[in-house]
């Protein structure tokens, strides 16, 4: 396994307020990691620390298996604030300035403009760009020196639906080229659509770190009813693949602990003498899992 980043017990306090509370996780090469959490959960503070922009209170991290220094930061491209370019200069001119600062070759400019879909607009002034185009130009700028990792803080904030789709498709395209991506987002569907891995933060605490699929891989539940609800409830509770049974309106909600087809469940209940009059399988969404995690933390 190829670790790009390893964070160990990272904490940031502002006075008596703990913005990031003892979080640990690692990032493996070639994946897209989503730092997911509501506003104020500590995402930007975490990114600020691992980019050496915010001093941590405690904890440590390693980039590419080394203690962080300016050399490791050269291997990372990051956009953590709104893009800043010269408004009266063209996209190309702006990227030339960034390339000079980053000591990147000017030959990279067209390649990155092509990648972000702005090659035909390279002579246009930055001030005439839409918000989405500005964001894509910022991504091109961050990629000029071919970083191994790209860090984005709320990359689709403020964009219209078309702009959001373009940025998400771009992130997937960049990841397909082998760049590891870490993005902070408060949008569940963004993380679900774009990321392979997710780190869930709430009130500075890490609630989950792992693959999106795994977080999503709950086997779901069934909503079921029968003429004799008491017998149904008792029987459901005895079945080995059901962990919990609760009442939901006039029906029962049973949580599955393994993959089960509704037809199979129907058959098993029938074998126990129960004829169901309603049986629907429900797949838990990432959203459900997320709120469940937050609810568990608050309980
Ligand atoms: N310099 C600071 N001084 C005091 N408190 C701060 C400072 N920076 C951040 N905070 C607080 O730390 C908490 C975490 O903020 P952070 O910006 O990391 O959250 P976030 O998850 O990125 O949310 P958002 O998407 O709203 O930026 C917030 O309650 C914020 O008010």
- What is the string of helix and strand elements? EEEHEHEHHHEHEHEEHEHEEHEH
What ligands can be seen in this structure? adenosine-5'-triphosphate
Class of the largest domain, according to the CATH hierarchy? Answer: Alpha Beta
Structural class: alpha/beta
**CATH architecture identity of the largest domain:** 3-Layer(aba) Sandwich
- Low-pLDDT sequence parts: none
* Major β-sheet profile: 6 strands, mixed
Assembly state here?
single chain
Structure characteristics:
alpha/beta, P-loop_NTPase, Alpha-Beta Plaits, binds adenosine-5'-triphosphate, ATP-binding, four-stranded antiparallel sheet, transport, elongated, ABC_transporter-like_ATP-bd, six-stranded mixed sheet, ATP hydrolysis activity, 299 residues, Rossmann fold
Account of the protein in words:
The protein is an alpha/beta fold and 299 residues long. The protein folds into two domains: 3-216, 3-Layer(aba) Sandwich (Rossmann fold), CATH 3.40.50; 221-283, 2-Layer Sandwich (Alpha-Beta Plaits), CATH 3.30.70. The chain is built from eleven helices and 13 strands. It has helices spanning 43-50, 70-73, 91-102, 107-115, 131-143, 161-176, 188-194, 212-216, 229-238, 262-271, 286-298; strands at 3-14, 17-28, 32-36, 58-63, 76-79, 149-153, 180-185, 197-202, 205-211, 221-226, 242-248, 251-256, 276-282. The strands form three sheets. Strands 5-6-7-3-8-9 form a six-stranded mixed β-sheet, sandwiched between helices. Strands 11-12-10-13 form a four-stranded antiparallel β-sheet, covered by helices on one side. A three-stranded antiparallel β-sheet has the order 2-1-4, covered by helices on one side. The two termini are 36 Å apart. 32% of the residues are buried. The structure holds adenosine-5'-triphosphate (ATP). Adenosine-5'-triphosphate is lined by residues 14, 17, 19, 37, 39-45, 186. Residues 5-228 form the ABC transporter domain. Belongs to the ABC transporter superfamily.
């Amino acid at each position: 396994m190829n670790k790009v980043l390893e964070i160990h017990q990272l904490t940031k306090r502002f006075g008596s307020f703990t913005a990031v509370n003892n979080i640990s996780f690692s990032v493996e090469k070639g994946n897209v990691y989503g730092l997911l959490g509501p506003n104020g959960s500590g995402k930007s503070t975490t990114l600020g620390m691992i980019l050496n922009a915010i001093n941590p209170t405690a904890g440590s991290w390693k980039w590419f298996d080394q203690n962080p220094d300016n050399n490791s930061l050269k291997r990372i491209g990051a956009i953590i604030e709104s893009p800043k370019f010269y408004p009266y200069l063209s996209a190309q001119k702006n990227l030339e300035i960034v390339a000079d600062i980053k000591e990147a070759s000017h030959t990279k400019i067209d390649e990155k403009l092509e990648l972000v879909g702005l090659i035909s607009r390279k002579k246009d002034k930055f001030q005439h760009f839409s918000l989405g185009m500005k964001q894509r130009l910022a991504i091109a700028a961050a990629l000029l020196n071919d970083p191994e990792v790209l860090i984005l803080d709320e990359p689709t904030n403020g964009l219209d639906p078309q702009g959001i789709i373009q940025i998400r498709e771009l992130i997937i395209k960049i990841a397909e080229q082998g760049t590891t991506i870490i993005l902070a987002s408060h949008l569940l569907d963004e993380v679900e659509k774009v990321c392979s891995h997710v780190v869930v933060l709430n009130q500075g605490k890490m609630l989950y770190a792992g693959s999106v699929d795994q977080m999503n891989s709950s086997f779901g539940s069934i909503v079921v009813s029968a003429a004799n609800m008491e017998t149904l409830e008792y029987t459901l509770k005895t079945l080995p693949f059901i962990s919990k049974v609760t009442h939901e309106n006039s029906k029962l909600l049973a949580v599955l602990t393994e993959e089960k087809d509704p037809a199979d469940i129907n058959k098993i209940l029938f074998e126990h003498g129960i004829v169901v009059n309603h049986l629907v399988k429900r797949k838990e969404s990432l959203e459900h899992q997320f709120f469940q995690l937050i609810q568990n933390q608050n309980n």
